[in-house]
Every structure is written in structure tokens, then in C-alpha cells.
Amino acid sequence: MDNSMLTIALIVIPFIAAALMAVLPSKSAPRLAYQALHMVSLVAVCVLSVYLSITVIARDKTIIALGDWIHLDALGAVFVVLIGVVGLLVGWYSLAYIKHDEDEGLLNPAQVKQYYLFFNLFIFAMLIVALSNNVIMMWVGIEITTLVTVFLVGIYNNRFSLEAAWKYIIVCTAGVAFGLYGTLLIYANGADIMADPTMAIFWTSLVPYASQFDAMLIQIAFVFIVIGFGTKAGLFPMHTWLPDAHSEAPSPISALLSGVLLKCAILVIIRFYILAVEALGPAFPQMIMLVIGIISVVVAALSVLMQDDVKRLLAYSSCENIGIIALCLGFGGPLGIAAALLHCVFHGLAKALLFCLSGNVLMKYGTRDLSKIKGILQVAPATAVLLVLGFFALAGFPPFALFVSKVLAFVAGVVAGHIVIVVIFGIAATVVIAACIRVVSRSVFNKAPETVKKGDVGIAALIPQFLMVALILWFGIAMPGALFKGVEEATAIVLQEEGPVLHNDPLLKDLLATDEDTT
Amino acid sequence: MDGFMIVNILGGLLILTSLLVILIKNPKNAAYMYGGQALVLVAILATLGFVTGSSELYTWSVTAFFTKVIIVPAIILFALNKMQAKPDDLAPRFALVTTVLLVVGEVILCYLAVSGIELPTVAELKPALAISLAHFFIGLTCIISQRNIVKQIFGYCLMENGSHVSLALLAPEAPKLVEIGIATDALFSVVIMAFLVLRIQRSLKTLDANELTKLKG
Fold first, then answer.
1. Nearest-Cα residue of chain A relative to residue B172
2. CB contact residues (below 8 A), chain A span 200-219, against chain B
3. Taking the CB of residue A333, how many other CB atoms lie within 10 A of it?
4. Which of A351, A361, A360, A359 is nearest to A390 (CA)?
5. Which region holds residue A10: left if phi is over 0, alpha if psi is between -120 and 50, else beta?
6. What ipTM was predicted for this assembly?
7. What is the model's pTM?
8. pLDDT tens digits, one per residue of A343-359
9. What's the rounded Cα separation, in Å, for the pair A114 and A151?
10. pLDDT tens per residue, range B52-75
11. How far is A463 from chain B (nearest CA, A)?
12. What is the CA radius of gyration of chain B?
């Protein structure tokens, strides 16, 4: 099979798995059947996504499939790998988590089937977003992620989860409608000036024509797109659905929503950001990203500090980190773009880890209330250690990977000359560090309540979490060459420049040269 | 009277009908009104097809007739009939005058925004384009102003209709697949929202968005 076929297979596999689950009877089919289908699908997606992405990055050549509908370039590859790897690890963790919920009577067999089925559809939808070259399909992909995850957010069928599900669907569909409107404006403009109007649907054909777009139309379109897909990404002030949906969903789903889905929405924004920069020059799009980014960072950082619910705290922290990514896009330049992309990957891993860990805590304590969660170290030592590492990583301490992306973000801001914004960003980051330390000191240490039974969650739940920590440490201490090269090529795509943009950057040139001398 | 004039007049009618969808309190009647509103949209698509000679637009008007005039209201009416207790007419969050003023304001703002666009295709259709953009915001107004979650679904539909008309105005030659993709997606969204509304009504015995505020947001 050639790479185009493999790319199509990558998208289709989780869909087939979901379809097979749909035809299995929920009562008589053993749980193992769903688990097996689920894991086979996720392993295949992970292997294919890593293989195809490495191929694209190594050859620096885009894979095209299904006419021009599907494409995998280095920019998409960064996100496809995130979907594949985090999808597998979180899916693996799900087995233990869902079994626990089933044993506790929180989920019945029909709901378990629903969980695995929609989990795979969720992966399918995100792959559509990351791999679509058709701009309308990108929007459709984002819409499908909303429609399938609504069932996952509302799966417990209680007052809170139904309320969260409603808020989620209404805010996100209305929000993403803005994204559609913006997309249609750009499409219409493209169709008007291109020799073959049918090609205006493809992102790769729009890029070369972007400089001829109508300035006013593109300004309106870009604002609509940032509002629309920014709603899905959790940017302030469209983030209101996020803390509710993320806290009410089963923890592995929160992990996937925060860790991966928000980044997929960012990818769509980046795709249009490229068009907007080509059409209008960098000033307007960067200004929009800067304003929305810094407001998101500040508001979310303060919200993180005020939360007493561990999952809401993590959800607001996701808003803060998405704000950082927007900010990096606003800073622009090779450093800013690379920081944004690296932060997508690193935050994706760290937040997936922490939401899974909040699942461990939920399994042990039966509550998300931080004032009742104390003494995790006594109750579940492995979870406690992972939690400390996770929160340190989230706070951006070395040697964790987020330290690298955050430092790069600061440097990009200074280089771009936005000193005031960098200072505000620094203060907000300090507030988040305080919040992280507060959780660790209150909940990991202290005396455990007598009612909580000692003993960690099973090894099956812990292994994927250990792997996530290992990846975050690995990327922080010695970033693999393929990841760096992928981010460099993706940065070049965003900047629409040729060559090794990071190696050519005056600030990074010497650093990367010494690095290569020693290796 | 030329075709463009008719399109612009129908655009005005579209605003009026959407406003009525927002203002009618009873969700069942609002569903019928929405059907009427969608009929105006179908007329716009058909007229545009006639004016521009685009056969794609005729096909659109046919699919829009089935999806928007018939299926969407039918789904909502079905969901309303399935509800165990007869839902009360919930008063909207905003007073009538506020809503009307908001809509007028949106139309004016959109008119100003559109006047800056210099695309040759829309030269004669700028009023209609302004209206379709405003229509999008009227949908948003519907979502924000309504307490009844069924009415909020109409808000989303109105937003979607606004995008649809804009697309028809700006890119009459758009391939069928684009239009079908958007229409199908919107239909799925409405089905899932109606399903969720039904579940909320059954579990929580309310359709009032003001009562769905246990979470802090």
C-alpha cells in the first residue's frame, strides 16, 4: 500500500471500529469485545500516524490522497502524531477507568458500549480536522467532534452532565457557525478570483492566491474564524462551555478534549492565520491573536487560582495554555510559531496526563473537591508522585518539556518587542505556578481522610500515565530530532518560507550548531 | 423590477420572519414560523438561480426546501410531541423592544461592514449580503435572548441559514457537495440537539435555560 492509501486507512480505521461496535449487541456482547476493538483501532491509528508523520517529515513532502481532499503536511503531522499517541495512551487508560465506573454502577452496559463507540468516532473526527485539505471539511470535522463528544460529556445522564452537555453543544455549534461563515467568505473570495472556482475549496490551492484576496472581506473572515474555532479551542470570552464540559465528562474524555481537541481547533486557526498573513500582512492577524491570547491567559490564570474542583482547575489551565499558544502566534516569527507548535504538543501530553490522574483521584476519593482530597501520598503513592511531576510539568519547571516551549514563548515575545505583554504573561504564569504548588501541597501531602481505602489504582491505569510522564521528560531533556525537524518544517509552512527556518534564526543558530557539533 | 431587486426585497422579508421566530413564545408556533422563514430562504435561492443562471442554486433551493422547510420543523415538532408534560411558554430574557432594537442595530452594523467589500460579484447584491450577515447575528440574538432551550435550537438554525444565503450570494457556482455537506451537518446538529433537549426534559423536567445554571461556567 502506498502512503496515500495508508493515510486514508488512518482516517477510516477508527470509523470502522466504531461501526463494528455499533452492530455489537450491548447486553450480550462481552465487555472484552469492545475493549479489543477499541485497542486494536487505537494501536493502528497510533502506529500509522507516527509512521506517516515521520515519512512526511523525513522527506519534507506532503502526502495527498482522495483527489486533493486529504493532505498530510508537516504542520498537520505535528497534530496527527498528537492525536495518535495521546489517543492511544488515554484510550488505554480508559479501560481501567470505565471498568471502575461500571463496577461502581455509574455506567450500565449500554453506556459502556456508547463510551467506546463515541471515543473512536471522536478520534475519527479529529483526524478529519488534521488531515483535511478541504476547508469546509475542516469545519465539518470540528462539528463532528462536537456532535460525538456531546454524548460523552452527557454520558452519566445526571443533572450536571446534561447541563454541561447542553451548554457545550449550544455554545460550540453557535460558535463554530462563525467559523463556517468565515470559511465561506474565504472560499467565496477564492472562487471569485481563481481560474477554476472548484479549486477554491482546497486550502493548498487557496494559499498561492491569498495575496489577491479582498482586504475587508478577509479581515471580517479572519475575525469570524478566530471567534468560531476559538470557541472550540477555549479562548476567552468564548470559553464558557469548557470548564463545565471538561469537568463533567469522564476523566479520559476530559484528557482527550483538553489534550488534543483544543489543539485541533488551533490547527484550523493556524491554517487560516497563514491565509490571513498572506492576504493582509502579519500586523492584523497578529494583533487579533495577541489581544485574545493575553486576555485568555490573564483571565484563565486568575480562574485557575480560584478553583476548588480539581477538574475545573485543570480546565481553566487549558484555557490559559491555549491563550499562550494564541499569544505565540501573535508574537509571530520563527520563534513564536515554533513555540506555539511545541506548546500544542507538550501541553497536550501534560494535560492528558493530569486529567487521567484526576481520574485516579476520582476513583479513590469519589470527589473532585480539593478541600476533601488530602493525603494522596498515603493513599495512592504512585498517583501522588505522578501528580507532583504532572503539576510541575504544567507549571513549566525544568527539565519538563513545557519549560522549553514557555521559555521559547517568552523569547519570541521579547524578540517581537512586546515587552508589556511579556511582563503580563510572566505574572500570569507565576499565578499558575502558585496554583499548581497549592494543589500539590494541599492534596498530595496532609493527612488522608480515614474513609478513603489505601492502595493505588491498578497497574493497568498507571502504565499509560508513566509513559506520558516519560515522554514529557524525554522531550524536555533531549528533544528527538524528528520532532524538532517536524516543528521546523511546520514553522516554515506557517511562515510560507523555504529552508530550515529555525536553524537560520539568529538567536537559535549558534545554539543548534553547538548541539549538532556535540552529537 | 429586476431579479436582484427581488432578492433584496426577499432579504428584507427574511429578517422580518426571523424576528417573528424569535418573538413567538410558543415553541410549536415558532416551529411553523421557522418553516415559513425557510420558505423565504428557498425563494431567495431560487430567484438567485434565475438571476445568475446557476443550475446549482436551483438544486440548493430544492434540498433547502426539504431540509429546512420540512425536516427541521418536523424534528422539533416531533420532539415537542414526545415530551411528557406540555411545556409552558417561557418568557424570553429580553423585552420585545430590546430584541427589536438589537436586530435593527445588527442590520445597520452589518450594512456598514459589507459596504467596505469590493468584490465584483456582490456589487448589486450588497443589501442582500448585509442582510444575510445580519441574519447570522439575529440567530445569535435568538440563542442569547431565549430561555426556552427549544427556541435556542432555532437560533442555531437561523445562524446556519444566514451562512447559507451568504454562500449563495457570494459563490453561486459552489459545487453541490459543499452545500450538501453544510445542510447535512446542520441537520445532524438539529437531530442531536433535539435528542438532548428531550433527555433534559425527561430527566430534569424543564426546558428553561435559566434552570440549567447549577454549573458555574
1. A188
2. 200-201, 214, 216-217
3. 19
4. A351
5. alpha
6. 0.91
7. 0.94
8. 999 999 999 999 999 99
9. 8
10. 777 888 888 888 899 999 999 999
11. 33
12. 18
